[in-house]
């Protein structure tokens, strides 16, 4: 686990190290600052290891830090340095930070460097030398986001695989429940599906971050179409998880009578195949279109009158729940909602 964390953080570590070296070099050799402490700390704090590496998030952090440094420098000139002065400076910075941004982290980001400015001796270059260092660090952090980006698809792809893995396991449980009249299998599938929301949120965050970076970075801009496709699939995966919770719940209730439903198990199994192919397409361009083909065949089968003639209302309900799910997944393959719905057989 520790080794995996380190491996996954290597792009962020590389980005931060390059940015720190650049910020130090500019402040130290370019502007003659002997110890450009805030140039380095601003760079590190602005980039960090956060999942959300969007330029707007980096810019917000930079702005908060620069605000704290500037206020610290200005107030230190007015009230001097010491304990009560530190308290006054922090009070002002917290008030201004909360007024400027609704994000509590903004005020905290502003407060830490303002405290450093008040506590450290005045630098040789004058009172606003550290403000210049902070500006250098912030500018370098923003440039690093575009020019030394972390792999924008790496974290997103990892999050997508994690979500699809749970969806596939859950669908397998629903298939077992319907094929073997096993309520426990449906309950297990439902418990797995109830834990998918953090995975959905993590994938959405990493994709949003990756798309934001790809828009401005010349090195990874070519990945933007793939990332937008992934975002479309992620939206469908979210809807799939929601649909499947209802289907798993209904299936668990349905098989309490001890009767297997092989026809329903067959279409859910085909759905599982389509979901698996959709997930594989994200990493393998050669599989493009395979999920749409499978879903098109599945949609044509979702007619209660032909698949389960004479079945009770509960059986029909489970089958009907699969129809909007098939439409959502077809939309993920780049069909329009109208085109997807047209593939479903009419229901009387």
From TrEMBL:
What is the topology of this protein in the membrane according to its UniProt annotation? Multi-pass membrane protein
Q: Where is the Integral membrane bound transporter domain?
A: 23-144
Indicate the transmembrane segments per the record.
12-31, 61-79
Where found? Membrane
**Could you tell me the keywords of this UniProt record?**
Membrane, Transmembrane, Transmembrane helix
InterPro entries named in the record: Memb_transporter_dom
Question: Does Lipid biosynthesis count among this protein's keywords?
Answer: no
Pfam families reported for this sequence? FUSC_2 (PF13515)
Gene Ontology CC terms: membrane
UniProt protein name: FUSC family protein
- What is the native source organism of this protein? Protaetiibacter intestinalis
């Amino acid at each position: 686990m520790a080794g995996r964390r380190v491996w996954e953080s290597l792009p962020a570590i590389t980005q931060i190290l390059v940015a720190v070296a650049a910020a130090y070099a500019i402040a130290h050799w370019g502007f003659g600052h002997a110890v450009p402490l805030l140039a380095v700390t601003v760079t590190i704090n602005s980039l960090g290891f956060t999942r959300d590496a969007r330029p707007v998030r980096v810019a917000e952090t930079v702005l908060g830090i620069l605000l704290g440094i500037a206020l610290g420098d200005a107030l230190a000139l007015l009230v001097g340095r010491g304990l009560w002065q530190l308290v006054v400076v922090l009070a002002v910075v917290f008030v201004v930070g909360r007024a400027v941004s609704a994000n509590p982290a903004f005020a905290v980001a502003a407060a830490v460097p303002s405290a450093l400015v008040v506590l450290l001796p005045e630098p040789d270059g004058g009172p606003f030398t550290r403000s210049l260092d902070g500006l250098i660090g912030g500018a370098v952090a923003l440039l690093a986001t575009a020019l030394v980006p972390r792999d924008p698809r790496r974290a997103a792809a990892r999050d997508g695989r994690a979500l699809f893995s749970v969806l596939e396991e859950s669908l397998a449980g629903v298939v077992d429940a319907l094929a073997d009249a096993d309520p426990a299998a449906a309950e297990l599938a439902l418990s797995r599906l109830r834990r998918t929301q953090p995975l959905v949120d993590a994938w959405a965050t990493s994709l949003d971050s990756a798309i934001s970076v790809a828009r401005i970075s010349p090195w990874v801009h070519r990945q933007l179409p793939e990332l937008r496709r992934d975002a479309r699939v992620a939206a469908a995966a979210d809807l799939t998880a929601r649909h499947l919770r209802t289907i798993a719940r209904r299936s668990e209730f349905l098989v309490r009578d001890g009767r297997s439903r092989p026809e329903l198990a067959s279409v859910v199994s085909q759905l599982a195949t389509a979901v698996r192919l959709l997930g594989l397409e994200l990493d393998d361009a050669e599989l493009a279109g395979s999920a749409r083909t499978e879903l098109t065949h599945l949609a044509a089968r979702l007619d209660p009158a032909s698949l389960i003639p004479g079945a009770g209302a509960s059986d029909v309900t489970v089958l009907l729940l699969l129809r909007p799910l098939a439409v959502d997944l077809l939309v993920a393959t780049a069909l329009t909602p109208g085109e997807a719905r047209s593939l479903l057989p009419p229901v009387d």
